[in-house]
């Protein structure tokens, strides 16, 4: 099996949310499925800085779990516009499925959906 160098590979890091983080997400006014207690990093393999996984979206704010080996936290962001100039409101309108200012390459929404379907 060979790896297609054209398609970025996600970082394999995972995080388990604590009770306070799960309670925070459950309290958000969002019409979305509840957050899973274990999430995988959505950034490109070999990225710099902390790992990140989308927790929830409320209106134009996206809540991302960011973690290192020693700590994790929930942070608000807006969607990355990808190669466009203005931030998008809906993930389906994006060239990139990550947060504004993320490290590494842009992640396509198609690749993110395929990764979610495979897990």
Describe the structure.
16% of the residues lie in helices and 23% in strands. It is of the alpha+beta class and 119 residues long. It has a three-stranded antiparallel sheet with strand order 3-4-5, with no helix packed on it. The chain has a two-stranded antiparallel ribbon with strand order 1-2.
Main structural class? alpha+beta
Overall number of domains: 1
Portion of residues within helices? 10-25%
- Rounded to an integer in angstroms, the radius of gyration calculated over CA atoms is 14 Å
Rounded mean pLDDT score = 79
Number of helices: 2
Morphology call? globular
| N- to C-terminal distance | 19 Å
Strand order of the largest sheet: 3-4-5
Strand content: 15-25%
Number-wise, the strands total: 5
Low-confidence stretches: 1-5, 109-119
Order of helices and strands: EHEEEEH
Biggest pleated sheet:
3 strands, antiparallel
Fold topology:
Layout: E1 14-16, H1 19-27, E2 38-40, E3 51-58, E4 61-67, E5 72-77, H2 109-118
Antiparallel strand pairs: 1-2, 3-4, 4-5
In short:
With 119 residues, the protein is α+β, with helices and mostly antiparallel strands.
Spell out the key features of this protein.
2 helices, alpha+beta, disordered N terminus, disordered C terminus, 3-stranded antiparallel beta sheet, two-stranded antiparallel ribbon, 119 residues
């Amino acid at each position: 099996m060979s790896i297609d160098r054209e398609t970025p590979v996600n970082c394999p890091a995972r995080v388990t949310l604590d009770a306070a983080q799960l309670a925070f997400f459950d309290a958000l006014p969002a019409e979305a499925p509840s957050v899973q207690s274990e999430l995988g990093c959505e950034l490109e393999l070999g990225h710099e800085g902390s790992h990140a996984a989308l927790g929830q979206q409320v209106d134009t704010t996206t809540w991302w779990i960011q973690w290192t080996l020693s700590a994790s936290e929930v942070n608000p962001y807006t969607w990355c516009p990808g190669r466009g100039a203005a931030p998008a409101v809906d993930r389906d309108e994006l060239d990139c499925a990550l947060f504004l200012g993320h490290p590494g390459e842009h992640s396509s929404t198609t690749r993110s959906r395929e990764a979610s379907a495979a897990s």
